[in-house]
Amino acid sequence: GLMEVPNPSELFLAERPLNTPGSVVTATLEGSRTVLLEIQALVTPTAYGTPRRTTLGVDQSRVALLLAVLEKKAGLQLGSQDVFVNVAGGAKLSEPAADLPILIAIASSYLDKAVPPDMVIFGEVGLAGEIRAVTQPELRLSEATKLGFSQCVVPAGNKQRLSEDQTTIQYASHVLDILPTLL
Q1: Which of 14, 29, 40, 81 has the smallest number of CB atoms closer than 10 Å to its CB?
Q2: What is the model's pLDDT at position 5?
């Protein structure tokens, strides 16, 4: 028979490696429920002429757009790198709030620097590198706090809807605001 899963976030994060470059946790909405998921990225020099872009659980076109933003706005040279992006646990992400964690996971792997393991990241990224506000940030932050995450990167546009009760919040309006502080 079927068994209830009381907290799917714990299930998705159960085997997450800590202090590993390319691993980022995000808070996503599935209907009205918030679920924390791990986004993994692996960036490695290509062994062939054309670099590979492989994604599982996220839109490949969206990843290509984020790679272009990283190249143009952050100066990361990804044109000669194979890039693999995966949502752990087989989940699928389609909301724009997953943009920033995908971008940070890619940069983390490329620079070989880990994101703090107690950090959750969410935000939409525009073509100019701006970080746009997302819906229901208070629900996302509440779920992260409930699971013991003490740091969060949030779009600056969501500042008026949040309070820093138990979580340290870093507000960012552009990818250049957050990349140097994290990596």
Answers
A1: 14
A2: 58
Chunked in runs of 10, what are the mean pLDDT values of the chain (183 residues)? Answer: 64 77 96 93 94 97 98 96 95 96 98 96 98 96 93 95 81 95 85
Q: What share of the chain is helix, strand, coil (3-state, %, to 5)?
A: 35, 30, 35
**Biggest CA-to-CA distance, the chain:** 52
Angle at 116 between CA 82 and CA 22, to 5 degrees: 10
Q: Strand 131-132 and strand 124-125: pairing?
A: antiparallel
For residue 119, give the amino acid letter. M
- Give the pTM: 0.92
Tell me if residue 33 falls in helix, strand or coil: strand
- Say which amino acid occupies 1: G
Residue found under tokens 């957050």: 178
DSSP string, 37-102: EEEEEEEEE-SSSS--EEEESS-HHHHHHHHHHHHHHH----TTEEEEEEEGGG----SGGGHHHH
> Is the distance from CB of 165 to CB of 149 less than 8 angstroms?
no
Residues 6+ apart with CB under 8 A from 50: none
